[in-house]
Amino acid sequence: MLLVNFTTLVSFLGYFIALKYIEPAIYSVVATSVGPVITLFITGVILKYERAKGVDILSCSGIIVSMFFLVYAIYSGRSAVGSISLSSFVNGLFMTFISGCAMTINNIWSGRLNKRGVRPEYILASRFILLIVFSLFAAGPEPVVTTAKEYGFSIALIALLGNTFSLFLLQYGIKHTSSFSVAMILVCSPLFCLIFQGMDHQFAFSLYSTIGILSCSLFVLIGIWGKKQKTMPKESLTETQTR
């Protein structure tokens, strides 16, 4: 559980630092897009318990190209948020990449713990210990109490719906599917960013962002379809091809 705690700390720390320099849309695109690539490398090359197929490589390659297209659009000021400074772009992108890598390793290791019989509820209850301790020491008790008094309801809402409930579902998803599939599905989060940005008047419509996000989603579907084909029983596959 130490590795799960450490990667949870790094992923959340990278997330909050990245948001100091860039808007959430960049974080969502880059952090989730590196997931399938890192997952494929770790599970296929290092751990060698999930062999990469051609469709996996195609899907990851398409995600990488789409991700760089989105990063270029944001850097050149063609995204929905306009231009940002070079230092903010570099700092935010670096911390986003670190956070995405930590999040991916966390998902992979949580899956391995599930296979060893560790229940998702126990993983969820134990993964934030290091993060809580670090946060208390880094911020100090007085700012924590002041912030809790001023923004208590908003923090509780984010903690319950944004973290506890979603991570609980994620742990069960990791238990019942492959780590690569989990990473692939999480790439769909930029779609939600696109939808919510459309509801916010401070964001202008961007054709570049729309194309890049839809392209990422397309290659996600290709990766999920490839996983389904590999796990499909031979009898069902033969029947489908005959039809």
Can you offer a commentary on this structure?
It comes from Acerihabitans sp. KWT182. Keywords: Membrane, Transmembrane, Transmembrane helix. This is DMT family transporter. The chain crosses the membrane at residues 28-47, 54-75, 87-109, 121-139, 151-170, 182-199, 205-226. This protein is mostly helical and 243 residues long. 83% of the residues lie in helices and 0% in strands. The protein contains eleven helices and no strands. Helix 2 runs antiparallel to helix 3 (54-75) and helix 2 crosses helix 4. The chain is globular and about 55 Å long. The protein starts with a helix and ends with a helix.
Which whole number gives the mean pLDDT? 78
For the largest beta-sheet, the strand count, sense and barrel status come to: none
H-E string: HHHHHHHHHHH
Note the overall shape: globular
Terminal Cα separation, in Å? 48 Å
How many beta strands in the DSSP annotation?
A: 0
The helix count comes to 11
| Helix-and-strand structural type | mainly alpha
Radius of gyration, in Å, reads 19 Å
Strand content: under 5%
Runs in which pLDDT lies below 50 for 5 or more consecutive residues are 234-243
User: Helicity level, as a percent range?
Assistant: over 70%
